[in-house]
Design brief:
With 539 residues, this protein is α/β, with parallel strands linked by helices. The chain is built from 22 helices and 10 strands. The relative contact order is 0.04.
């Protein structure tokens, strides 16, 4: 029940309100009463009423002062004012400082009843809202670890649609990232690990994460982010006075590798980024770790690879000509252009000949890196394409092994070319299906809305691509532009309508979306060789 306090310096008024109102009907009870504002405040502090009915003019403390104190003490309380005819300026000020409503003295019970009923309705609504908010708070607390991990994933992978107050969300999830280094720990998958089910692999990953926390935890604040069922990323916050922290990190990496080898019989390769300054650097540092790991074939499995040391490796693509051709090749693969891919592969082979690059060992890492890049392209297409068909498996580790055993650059180019053309063909099939679906959807939309004043933007919005893309598709797939196609549809619809003699030519023009009857007649003749009247007469 809601508690009520009555405050008035006239005992008869207090008694009347207490006895004349059906409090049970309102789910209320009178908790106490007072004769002035000072006494009222003391009793309000004791019983914390939900509804307060008070005179606006009282001895000791006036109603306005009391209202201010009450709202500071019980913000949700509903204060109903009893006032005389001359107090309207006073009442207006009372409403401004938080009074719920007022009624004139002597009060009509019906008016007071209505005010109490309104106050109870609002209190119930507030109570229910508070209950819902509390449920949401509990739900948030329950899902806090999941939401925390989701934010870290968004930062790690640099999702473009991440928005809002990132620092505020970091604070909400108690995530502190200032000066830091990133470690990426990769578990080398032997035959035993490959045979494990997903559950056991996650158990092993959990063991590795706990090992990292045990070894690095005493010296660094760290955050862990599992990447897949075996690999994990760790963010190490560097202390304010770190000393030679890089030597310490290297020592701990070696301890970790030894512990995991003994406990789980696994080999760990660890990549270490350069240092970052805030959460905004997380994605870049993750890319640095990935770049460091791409040199694993140079450093060997079980190595600790620093991004800062990559310049000491030989970079085949430091050659500007090869880098230009490589970029061209990747663009052709991404677009699914099979002819363009073949041409770029030939140009790449010629580049190696032209620059007399003939040492196989120097380019093995380069081709492995390229294989990894086209595999990334392939995976991005597979993620959005549900039609896998009878796709030949793309075994990246197997291709790496073939590259490792190759003793001639021409063999490596041949292996890489086969993989590149296979991925290009896969993307080409996906693009063809996508284009066909978009064209069909656009044509169906025109068939349904030809009678409207359609624009290229309307069609583009409906199929979720740009207007220029729609225009190119019409030209390429139908050998006509958008305007020509919609005019054809309108003329065909007009032919059907001309069979009905009830329609005038200008009415038919309007029905097919052409407002100018003269233009309609010229367009009709251009498409059919006859005017609308001649066509009708020929039927």
């Amino acid at each position: 029940m809601f508690k009520v306090m009555i405050i008035d310096d006239e005992p008869m008024i207090r008694k009347g309100i207490r006895t004349m109102v059906n409090w049970k009907e309102h789910d209320c009870e009178v908790a106490d009463e007072a004769s002035d504002g000072v006494e009222g405040i003391e009793k309000i502090k004791a019983c914390l009423p939900d509804i307060i009915i008070t005179d606006i003019r009282m001895p000791e403390m006036d109603g306005l002062t009391m209202i201010r104190e009450v709202k500071a003490l019980i913000p949700h309380s509903k204060i109903i004012i009893l006032t005389g005819f001359r107090d309207f300026d006073y009442v207006y000020e009372a409403i401004q400082v938080g009074a719920f409503g007022f009624t004139l003295k002597p009060s009509k019970i019906s008016e007071l009843d209505a005010l109490i009923s309104r106050a109870v309705t609002e209190l119930r609504f507030s109570l229910k809202r508070e209950e819902e908010i509390q449920k949401l708070r509990l739900l948030l607390e329950k899902h806090m670890p999941i939401l925390r991990e989701k934010l870290l994933y968004e930062l790690l992978y640099g999702y473009k649609d991440i928005n809002g107050d990132i620092e505020g969300r970091m604070k909400l999830f108690n995530l502190e990232i200032n000066h830091f280094l990133m470690l990426m720990v990769v578990c080398e998958t032997g035959e035993e690990l490959n045979r494990m089910n997903a559950y056991d692999r996650h158990v092993y990953q959990f063991g590795v994460i706990k090992s990292v926390e045990e070894i690095f935890g005493p010296s660094f604040k760290l955050l862990s982010i599992p990447c897949n069922d075996m690999d994990s990323v760790f963010i190490l916050n560097i202390p304010e006075n770190p000393g030679d922290f890089m030597t310490l990190i290297n020592e701990k990496c070696l301890q970790l590798q030894e512990m995991v080898s003994q406990c789980f019989n696994m080999v760990l390769t660890i990549a270490i980024s350069s240092d970052g300054d805030s959460s905004a650097d997380i994605h870049n540092k993750f890319n640095e770790c990935l770049q460091a790991l791409s040199y694993k074939h140079y450093a060997g499995s079980g190595s600790v690879i620093h991004f800062a040391d990559l310049n000491s490796f030989f970079h085949c693509n430091d050659n500007p000509d090869i880098r230009i051709v490589q970029d061209k090749l990747l663009e052709q693969i991404k677009s699914g252009n099979e002819e363009g891919t073949r041409a770029a592969l030939k140009e790449l082979s010629e580049c190696f000949e032209r620059h007399a690059i003939r040492e196989p060992e120097s380019v093995k890492g380069y081709f492995k890196s390229l294989l990894n890049e086209i595999n990334t392209i392939r995976l991005s297409v597979m993620a959005v394409d549900s039609d896998r068909g009878e796709e030949t498996p793309y075994n990246l580790e197997g291709l790496y092994r073939i590259i490792d055993t190759a003793d001639e650059i021409s063999s490596m180019i041949e292996i890489f070319s086969e993989a590149a053309q296979r991925v290009t063909s896969r993307i080409n099939r996906y693009n063809t299906r996508s284009i066909n679906q978009i064209i069909k959807k656009a044509m169906a939309y025109i068939q349904e809305h030809y009678q409207e004043q359609l624009t290229l933007n309307d069609i583009a919005s409906h199929v979720y691509v740009s207007p220029s893309y729609v225009s190119r598709m019409f030209s390429r797939e139908l050998n006509k532009n958008f305007v020509e196609y919609i005019n054809e549809v309108r003329i065909e619809k007009a032919k059907e309508l001309l069979r009905d003699v009830r329609y005038k030519t200008y009415e038919i023009a309007d029905r097919v979306g052409i407002q100018d009857a003269r233009y309609f007649s010229r367009l009709f003749k251009k498409h059919t060789g006859m005017t609308p009247t001649e066509y009708r007469d020929s039927l």
